[in-house]
Amino acid sequence: MAKIDESASNVWMPRLPEGGGPLYLAIADALAADIATGQLTNGTRLPPQRTLAHRLGIDFTTVSRAYAEARRRGLVEARVGMGTFVLRSERAAEAATPAPSGLVDLTMNFPPRSGDGPLSQSLWAAVADLEHSGGMDLLLRYQEVGGTRADREAGAVWLGDMVPELGAERLILAPGAQAGLLALLTLLKVDQRPVAVEALCYPGFRALADHKATPLVPVAMDSDGLIPEDFAAQCARHRPALLYCTPNLHNPTTATMPLARREAIAAIAREYDVIILEDDAYGKLAGNGLPPLAALAPERTYHIASLSKSLAPALRLAYVACPDARSAARLTGAIRATTSMASPLGAAIATRWIGSGLAAQTLAAIQTEAEARRAMALRHLGQDGMQSARHAYHIWLPLGHGWRRGDLASRLRQSGIGVVTSDAFAIGPAPEAIRIGLAAAPDRATLENSLREIADLVCQPPLLGNLIV
User: CB–CB of 376/388 below 8 Å?
Assistant: First the structure.
């Protein structure tokens, strides 16, 4: 056990910034900074919580919360009957780097950490094993654009329960869904005709359309997603060349199209000769057994299935199922011209994980953690009109009590919480709503605190929280 250093016990005082986020985070950040600079060393005993609260002139619970946050980051340890001590180790040093502002950033949407140690070890062991099977060729040579045969076959296995009769000749590997969508827009853009999209649309696609100077036509939505009748009306009025949509766990509303609606959308696309770009980033995550549009209109649908939401964003890999082998060959050329090849290393990792069953285990772990976090959100925000869906790790919160989305986001940021307003998604007038990512919080305790603060704020009229003198 490290020698106890009494020197700082009665003198350490956090240097706190004026204004900003929650005070407990500021104290934890100050503690992290003093550990990083060496002012506080391993074994230093910190002031008792009540003592520090008295010195700072703040409530005891704020200091207690700050010490708890420091323990969560691995900065300190509590010894029964002795006090709280600085815990300096390589792991603690890594954990001691919070976001610069102490912000709990709930704006991002990526898989939650499951906390499954054995699974993590197995995933890394499979990566390490590539040294023996791929060797230096995997690192030092370019691979086939669109993926090797083995990588495409693995993708066909991964999507086999969703896209019927999918063979490797119809499947292309892209360096992420964004790259796949860029290649498809480049390949399929027709005579400046617009693209039909959901009225609330993935911001990444909005950015691509703007980059390609492609006009977008919003199609109305309801709780079941894209409304077929409005899609037909927009097709008759604007003659879009493409439809871009997310049928499963729509981002941001979490809506999932029921079967009858999918069939109607496919029929309308066929009637008006519209090609479908089906962004199914959440399809494996949803696990609802509903057929994708690629199964209902296979001759005109490009099915983009990113691994970022269901496995790991760091792989930067998406499988694109094309209508036939000829369209797959054309898309390969477009990928070569726009973004070159998918990472051979990322593709090899995905292939190894899929073949060994680790991908399925990881997906199940993500689903379990997502459900735990969604249940937490329902407890705090369910009565406030929150929209969510099974296995989704983002929620959509329409606002009441007179709140405006910008005002709420600003107030939450003052409390150290980041959310996304509807403006990021809206094609046209934006509703008063925010999206909250449940996975970005590093653990459930942090998420619980954030959701509690959000719930406390949205349940009261905006003016009740203001103090103007």
Answer: no
What is the spatial distance between Cα 347 and Cα 214, in angstroms, rounded to a whole number? Answer: 31
* Residue 117 CA: distances (Å) to CA of 97, 113, 123, 203: 22, 10, 10, 34
Give the CA count within 13 Å in the CB-facing half-sphere of 293: 32
In terms of Cα–Cα distance, which of 276, 278, 334, 327 is closest to 306?
278
CATH fold for domain 360-465: Aspartate Aminotransferase, domain 1 (3.90.1150)
The one-digit pLDDT tens for each residue of the chain (469 residues) are 334 344 444 578 888 776 556 788 889 888 887 887 778 888 888 999 888 988 888 888 788 888 888 887 788 888 877 888 888 544 444 444 444 444 688 998 999 987 778 999 999 999 998 888 767 878 888 888 999 999 999 999 999 999 989 999 999 999 999 999 999 999 997 778 999 999 999 999 999 999 888 999 999 999 999 999 999 999 999 999 999 999 999 999 999 999 999 999 999 999 999 999 999 999 999 999 999 999 999 999 999 999 999 999 999 999 999 999 999 999 999 999 999 899 999 999 999 999 999 999 999 999 999 999 999 999 999 988 999 999 999 999 999 888 999 999 988 988 889 999 999 999 999 999 999 999 988 888 889 999 999 998 998 888 755 544 4
Residues shown for the chain = 469
Q: ω before 258 within 30° of 0 (cis)?
A: no
**Where in the sequence of the chain do the CATH 3.90.1150.10 domains occur?**
360-465
- Whether 347 and 317 have beta carbons less than 8 Å apart is answered as yes
Q: CATH number of 23-96: 3.90.850.10, 1.10.600.10, 1.10.10.10, 3.50.30.10? A: 1.10.10.10
Q: Give how far Cα 120 sits from Cα of 109, 113, 127, 168, 353, Å.
A: 20, 10, 11, 29, 12
* Fold topology of 142-356: Aspartate Aminotransferase; domain 2 (3.40.640)
Q: In angstroms, rounded to a whole number, what is the distance separating the alpha carbons of residues 260 and 290?
A: 10
d(C-alpha 106, C-alpha 313), whole Å: 16
Residue 345 CB-density burial (10 A; 0-12 exposed, 13-18 middle, 19+ buried) = middle
